[in-house]
């Protein structure tokens, strides 16, 4: 099981006080492991925000949350064929996946060095994981996220070859489909046109929070359990 981090000293506002029309619900706190685990369990995730020229740590809970139902991923025949061309590995190159997702060359990049350090710590404690697509012993795509009980909170993904990130996502869906699929939540933060094409749907914040509460009671997927 994951190693419990030190408790966070921060208290997040109760969801009943969140602005119903604003995805951003809090500012401040830190990226310590205990803070992150607490936040994800409450339906929040961090991103840097700039307000009045000052960069701050923002905590988001989208009014319309992007969720990929485990029985709803749209898999084309070409993607099925592509999947046969890659080897899937779990947590074999987490730091490299994180570095690729946080590459300064990517437009609208938000994964700062502080975020990379924070999620690296979460990974070493057993809370953050990567699903990787390899070809010829080279990492060519993947994704990473935070896994708490039945929640997998996807953070970002990358690809160096066509379909590599999609294949990693397909592999994640398949490993989460383990007998607890109806209780699991695969959260992708926001629905984008690209993610919608893969089957991501929108959930109202209240509905998402209800699903989240149930999912946290579900055991971790076997692939993400640390050795005893």
Automatic annotation (TrEMBL):
One of its GO terms (molecular function) is leucyl-tRNA--protein transferase activity. The keyword Acyltransferase applies. It comes from the Bacteria. It is an enzyme of class 2 (transferase). InterPro entries: Acyl_CoA_acyltransferase, Leu/Phe-tRNA_Trfase, Leu/Phe-tRNA_Trfase_C, Leu/Phe-tRNA_Trfase_N. Functions in the N-end rule pathway of protein degradation where it conjugates Leu, Phe and, less efficiently, Met from aminoacyl-tRNAs to the N-termini of proteins containing an N-terminal arginine or lysine. Belongs to the L/F-transferase family. This is Leucyl/phenylalanyl-tRNA--protein transferase. It comes from Nocardioides hwasunensis.
């Amino acid at each position: 099981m994951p190693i419990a981090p030190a408790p966070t000293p921060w208290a997040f506002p109760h969801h009943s006080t969140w602005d119903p029309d604003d995805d951003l619900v809090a500012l401040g706190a830190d990226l310590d492991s205990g803070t992150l685990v607490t936040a994800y369990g409450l339906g929040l995730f961090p991103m840097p925000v700039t307000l009045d020229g000052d960069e701050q740590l923002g905590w988001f809970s989208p009014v319309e949350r992007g969720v990929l139902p485990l029985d709803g991923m749209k898999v084309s025949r070409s993607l099925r064929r592509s999947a046969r061309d890659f080897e899937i590995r779990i947590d074999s190159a987490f730091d490299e996946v994180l570095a690729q997702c946080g590459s300064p060359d990517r437009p609208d990049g938000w994964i700062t060095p502080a975020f990379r350090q924070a999620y690296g710590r979460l990974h070493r404690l057993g809370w953050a994981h990567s699903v990787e697509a390899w070809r010829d012993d080279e990492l060519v795509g993947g994704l990473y996220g935070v896994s708490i009980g039945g929640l997998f909170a996807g953070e970002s993904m990358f690809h160096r070859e066509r379909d590599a990130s999609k294949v990693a996502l397909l592999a994640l869906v398949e490993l989460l489909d383990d007998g607890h699929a109806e209780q699991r939540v695969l959260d992708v933060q926001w629905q984008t046109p690209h993610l919608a094409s893969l089957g991501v749907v929108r959930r109202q914040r209240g509905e998402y929070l209800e699903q989240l509460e149930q999912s946290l009671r579900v055991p971790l997927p076997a692939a993400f359990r640390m050795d005893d």
